[in-house]
Design goal:
By secondary structure, this protein is of the alpha+beta class. Helix content is about 40%, strand content about 15%.
């Protein structure tokens, strides 16, 4: 019974884990004084279907940090409430349970938008919903979009000031952006194997790891001047090349290297040896972040064309 309720989980941006997701336990803890947990049956229902995917959004980007940064992350698995650092994450999916129809899963996209986009790209409803999700995710990850609309986006949680996404009225450009958004989202799939963009010498770096290495949680793991990530157990130091831009990458309020990957893979949390598989996982993780950076730059090139408004935007009734 216990093993059957342990499932893969979107834990933090670019970090998956396993979690005990037992509905009876969640229901009991949700009733505890002080808020033992937050029960979200609609999310449980949606992600119980393997067709479901979507993204987690922080509705209050201003609460996540002192400056505006990416405030969405993709979820192929059931998402944690804390996909953003402060406040509950809001989950936008392709499918969602309709309470009026016995919680049957239905398309979770505005009907008018779905009809217009489906006609423009000449695809069926199911394929169009996926394209809309990936297009939206790409736009929200674009640094050009964040920079151009910083004044409107860098807000606290206000219903009338939530992020708005411009939908370009051009089939080719829409599909190009959606394709890049899908590639970006795929980086968060469990087991994604990245190309070695950072050109690590995996064999050499792995050879530096001694037996019984207990990764220490370190508040200052970076050598910014030399663009290095330093792993230590208090005795041994392992130096890994890490570009400054990746050191500073922040998603939904989390410094994704320091406050997510390193924190939750440290001995303080795992109480386990940090082995060669873990170190290889870290190198792959850094290459995934480098791929993220590369794809966002490609998306920015397309978003410039959307925002200059020469192709127009889709009008909604």
């Amino acid at each position: 019974m216990l093993a059957a309720n342990i499932v893969p989980y979107s834990f933090r941006p670019y970090l998956q884990s396993n979690v005990l997701l037992w509905r009876d336990v969640l229901h009991s803890y949700a009733r505890l004084d002080g808020g033992g947990t937050r029960e979200r049956p609609e999310i449980l229902k949606a992600f119980s279907d393997k067709r479901t995917f979507g993204f987690a959004m922080a509705h209050a980007p201003k609460d996540q940090g002192e400056t505006l940064s990416q405030f969405v992350s993709f979820c192929w698995l059931h998402p944690d409430n804390d996909m953003c650092r402060r406040g509950n994450s809001y989950i936008y999916t392709n499918l969602y349970p309709n309470k009026k129809k016995g919680n049957a899963l239905e398309t979770n996209v505005n009907a008018d938008l779905l009809r217009i986009v489906s006609s423009m790209i000449k695809m069926n409803a199911s394929s169009t919903v996926s394209k809309i999700i990936f297009y939206t995710y790409a736009i929200l990850c674009s640094q050009v979009y964040l920079d151009d609309f910083e004044g409107a986006l860098f807000t606290t949680n206000q219903t009338d000031k939530r992020a708005r996404v411009p939908f370009v009225n051009d089939r080719r450009l829409f599909l190009e952006i959606a394709e890049l958004g899908e590639k970006l989202a795929s980086l968060e799939k469990p087991g994604f194997a990245p190309d070695n963009l950072l050109r690590f010498d995996y064999e050499f770096i792995l050879s530096q790891l001694p037996a019984n290495f207990h990764l220490k949680k370190n508040d200052h793991p970076f050598d910014e001047d030399n663009e290095l990530l330093i792993l230590t157990d208090g005795k041994t130091r392992i130096q890994i090349p890490c570009p400054l831009s990746l050191q500073k990458l922040n998603i939904s309020g989390y410094d994704v290297i320091k406050n997510s990957w390193l924190k939750f893979n440290s001995f303080d949390f795992t109480n386990c040896e940090f082995n060669h598989d873990d170190l290889k996982g870290l190198l792959d993780f850094l290459n995934i972040l480098a791929t993220h950076e590369y794809l966002v730059a490609k998306i920015d090139e397309k978003v410039h064309k959307v925002l200059d408004n020469t192709m127009g935007l889709i009008p909604l009734p």
